[in-house]
Amino acid sequence: VINFNPGPAGLPLPALERAREELLDFQGSGMSIMEHSHRGKEYESVHNEAISLLTELLGIPDTHQVLFLTGGASQQFAQVPMNFLPPGASADYLMTGVWSEKAYDEAVLVGQARIAATTVLPDKRYVRVPRQDELQLDPKAAYVHITSNNTIYGTQWHRWPEVGDVPLVADMSSDFLWKPTDVSRFAFLYAGAQKNLGPSGVLIAVARKDFIARGRKDIPKIFRYSTHAENNSLYNTPPTLAIYLCRNVLAWARQVGGLGQLERWNREKGELLYGALDKHAGFYHAPVERESRSYMNVVFKLPTPELDDQFVAQAKKAGMVGLKGYRTMGGIRASIYNAVTVDNVRVLVSFMEEFVRKNG
Ligand code: PLP
To answer: For binding L-glutamate, which residues are annotated in this chain's numbering (predicted)?
Structure first.
């Protein structure tokens, strides 16, 4: 099947095939990688290889460190303010969708947070990210939080906000590794693995070392980022199998040419899909404003909800799954993460053309 699910999403086939080959006997050890101790040399070499592949692919500078964490992005919504929002401080949140709302809701439970911009519409939807001149930033904020790609509404930041000297924190769950990214702009970025990088169960953070060192020390040790940083993400038992699979995906990404190549493919995929939507704008309605269109989640609607349902059902018969829009949104959402190929998207585009011919 061609998997257009929003996450957990498909993984590149070579990464899964490698896992299948190694599943029962990891490098002649007679056991699966998931049966190895996280303190043994076999697992540690996988762990460190995943970190070094990510460091190489993203060009992570020495000022920053990779962390493997658990609890998903949702836990970071709470853990970020627990670490970086001490009493008396305030954080700025830029609201671009459901996930930024959830992040903000957790922050106000922990400390003081402000909405420094929002593009919410009266009907609660979002169809763009804010422009720089709409940001009302507090120059004294403890940090500014953004959601780089809005999985549900299909919007994406294509220019990072200018936030002066205030640390920038980003939830990159749904577009991490979609293209080369200057991570030095971020004090802390985080992403659940289950879209572009691996299976669910592990979260990747890239953090500025001095920023996490400044984090609060009066919270439980397990929630301090500094604890995980000081222990190379081996303070407690990490999700070893998930990290092993991320290693496979990262090795695949390097082998196909790195993030520059992934970006070329992703742009081609996005242009193919948006091209089809624009060509048939009288039939397919793509609500997102052009400059905010996401290259990861492409959302659109057909003329009626009945046609939406038929589209999803017929696509499934043709081998394409995961196209139903988010439950509160309806419509269609094609999630075209790194593991979806340009050819996969061509199949969807031909299906869309055929669908208009029959129903338009
Ligand atoms: N942030 C974004 C942008 C997401 O797309 C999601 C899930 O789809 C989350 C956060 C929540 O992630 P998790 O379920 O790993 O907590």
So the answer is: 39
From CA 260, how far away is CA 255, in angstroms rounded?
12
| Sequence spans of domains, the chain | 13-255, 258-359
Residue with tokens 């929003």: 6
Ligand 1 contacts CB of residue 74 (under 6 A) = yes
d(CA 77, ligand 1 centre) in Å: 10
pTM: 0.98
Within 10 A of 132 (CB to CB), how many other CB atoms are there?
A: 12
Count the neighbouring beta carbons within 10 Å of the beta carbon of residue 332: 24
Atom of ligand 1 minimally distant from the CA of 73: 16
The CA-atom distances, in angstroms, between 104 and each of 99, 205, 250, 270 are 9, 19, 31, 30
ipTM at complex level: 0.99
Alpha-carbon span 76 to 90, nearest angstrom: 17
Tell me the per-residue pLDDT of 237-247, one tens digit each, with 9 for 90 and over.
999 999 999 99
* Nearest alpha carbon, ligand 1 atom 12: 73
| pLDDT tens string 278-334 | 999 999 999 999 999 999 999 999 999 999 999 999 999 999 999 999 988 899 999
Domain 13-255 indexed as CATH 3.40.640.10: yes
